[in-house]
Write a structure and sequence with these properties.
By secondary structure, the chain is mostly beta strands. The chain is 3% helix and 52% strand.
């Protein structure tokens, strides 16, 4: 679900909130799941307010949900690109055999199905 909230009172900042968008991957260093929201943040205009990710075990499926909130203030922004990412808090997984991971519309096997992060 994509929610976009524009708060344009007197030319003020715009608040953007995105949910379950972008891609998820496995960090090769520690094996954690990371969500990259696919958002390019300008250091001169954008302020990352919150980036969260969590997982819930539902039967044989790990359901990952993630939200990012950021504010944009200004209309002439630098061309640099800071990525909005979140590390996922996951429940204890007793056995990953046959487990799938669902994030938004993406569904992959837990074992050998999650791409590694290109950080």
């Amino acid at each position: 679900m994509l929610g976009l909230l524009g708060l344009l009172a007197c030319g003020g900042p715009t608040l953007t909130e995105l949910e379950d968008v972008g891609l998820f991957c496995r960090d090769t260093t520690d094996g954690e799941l990371i969500v990259d929201f696919g958002v390019c943040l300008s250091s001169s205009c954008d302020t990352l307010l919150e980036a969260t990710c969590s997982g819930e075990l539902v039967g044989d499926e790990l359901v990952v949900t993630a939200t990012v909130r950021y504010e944009t203030d200004g209309d002439e922004c630098t061309d640099d690109c800071g990525r909005a990412r979140a590390e996922c808090r996951l429940p204890t997984l007793p056995d990953t055999e046959g487990l799938t991971v669902r994030y938004g519309t993406q569904v992959v096997p837990f074992r050998n199905g999650i791409p590694t992060c290109d950080l």
